[in-house]
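Duplicate of earlier report; Ribosomal RNA small subunit methyltransferase A input re-posted below.
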Amino acid sequence: MKHPDYNSPAELKQVLDINGFSMQKKFGQNFLINEDARKRLVDALEVGEGIKVWEVGPGLGAMTNTILERGSDLTVFEIDRGFASLISQFFEDYSAKNTFHIVEGDVLKTWKGQFEKAGQPDRFFGNLPYNIAATIIADTIENNVRFERCVFTVQKEVAQRMCAKPGSADYSSFSALCQWAYDVKPLLDLSGGNFWPKPNVDSRAVVFTKKADFPCCKNPALFVKMQRALFSSRRKTVRNNLSQFLKNNDLAVSCLEKAGIDIMKRAEVLSLDELLRLSDVIEGEK
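Output:
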């Protein structure tokens, strides 16, 4: 089946109307209609012959098409049954060559099964809806699944959290988690006019590059739980939050002192190195 013109809102709308589909706001559906931006995103992903890629939310396949043209082995995760049906027809030639695969359903519920079935992909890509962006990224990292390279387009506020530095208003547990597993860099900003339907928010594309020096701590599972606990009540000191996590105030004070961290500080001013050091001190107390 012939693809629509991915740069034409009128043609995209026609495809939807003919098939009786509507854009689902609950799924965060918006098509990137800027061809140059699509090329820059796929260029940043650094795909090529035989590279295994996961794409979340392909929609009608604008980015999918570009990735497949570059010879990659692509698996897409699509929650909308109508879109999944259409793109299976758009890319049936690639399916026949076994380089295009569709996983239907909510990616938050399906990615682990696909990972167990097909193994580790090299790249992770997607225009991620606000309601799942942080969850899917954190979920993969916490399950010790890291990709060589990721390119995500997300709501600008989410991207700011990914890249935030200690002491800034956007710095959070999510910031620390992303920067623990990856080198995170902004790629480009995309105003609402680059999408159809036009969203009311701006987006930002970010590039994640897998850190070679990882996990830099003795017990990664402990680190994940500890740093989440430290950020759980932002107005409380690290002493208070760590005391609750360890269920022992004296032990919390002792661990913070051994790690060289002021017990009256708040988590949002602690560097990643400080968080990792504290995790190792706690591990040593077991």
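Strands lie at 31-32, 52-56, 73-78, 100-104, 123-127, 149-155, 182-190, 195-196, 203-210.

Merging into the original ticket.
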